[in-house]
Specification:
mainly beta, four-stranded antiparallel beta sheet, 1 helix, disordered N terminus
């Protein structure tokens, strides 16, 4: 296991360990925990990412926290007016080092790399409009999907919106964009590749490919090796177009245990 992989597992242990957890005898890891006593704004962490500059960003129900490994800096609607709200449900960093912050009821905030915060008029007013999924395509457009079925594309200040409300295939849960310019949309019971979608056009969503899902689809993740990881149908595979190019087999965890998030390390290992 690489040092980076060990570090990622350690961070997972730090923030996701149950309060009663303790280091296992003879184990290879020392587990430290941070709570509100050490400056975390709230103990329920809804979203977590590590940005290119090395900081950990944590979305909680009482503010957005930036962690440098020692101390927390907290951002909320009081000290960061453009944020709009303190109940943070989604964090995403794009290729330009901009942060996209999804709040529970007050919409989405865009924080550029200079620290300027801009509130977007997407998903405001109701928990049904909260941000569920984010992806960036090869044209550097940012795709945002909200719980009420709005698929939004943001590019150069313009927002195009399509309605993808739940249907027979279930709720849209996850998005990834591939190197060919296709946007993969995963619902409970289907996986479809949309596009290519011309920039500036908000008419129709061309469907390039549909892959049937016989058991519930949980998560998609872009792979550095090309294509995307697909966690669903009771197995973990890496797919390019309709072809499975890597198959890790059946779930190694009990059936019915949901997968909330995943990432790759620098060596391409799936965590």
């Amino acid at each position: 296991m690489s040092h980076l992989t060990k570090s990622i597992f350690l961070w997972l242990a730090v923030f996701l360990a149950a309060p009663q957890a303790s280091p296992m005898p003879g184990g290879g890891f020392a587990v430290d925990k941070w709570t509100t006593d050490e400056g975390l704004p709230q103990n329920s962490i809804i979203s977590i990412i590590q940005t290119r500059d090395g900081y950990l960003w944590l979305g909680t129900l009482n503010g957005l926290a930036r962690f440098d490994g020692v101390r927390f800096k907290v951002f909320d609607e009081i000290n960061t007016p453009g944020l709009g709200g303190s109940r943070i449900v989604k964090i995403f960093e794009d290729s330009e080092a901009n942060l996209w912050i999804g709040t529970e009821t007050t919409g989405i905030a865009l924080v550029n790399k200079q620290g300027k915060v801009t509130g977007l008029d997407i998903g405001r007013g109701s928990r049904n409009g909260r941000l569920l999924a984010v992806a960036e395509d090869v044209q550097k457009s940012i795709w945002l999907y909200t719980a009420d079925g709005q698929l939004c594309r943001y590019k150069n200040g313009r927002v195009d919106v399509w309605n993808m409300a739940s249907g027979a295939t279930g709720t849209t849960r996850t998005l990834v964009a591939d190197e060919k310019g296709l946007l993969w949309v995963g619902t409970d019971w289907s996986l479809a590749a949309l596009g290519p979608i011309p920039e500036g056009s908000a008419v129709g969503l061309p469907v390039a490919l549909v892959v049937p899902v016989t058991r519930k689809l949980e998560l998609l993740l872009t792979s550095r090796k090309g294509g995307h990881w697909e966690i669903g149908d009771g197995k973990v595979v890496r797919r390019r177009d309709e072809l499975i190019v890597q198959n890790l087999g059946e779930y190694p965890w009990p059936e019915g245990v949901p997968v909330a998030t995943a990432c790759e390390d620098a060596e391409g290992n799936l965590i």
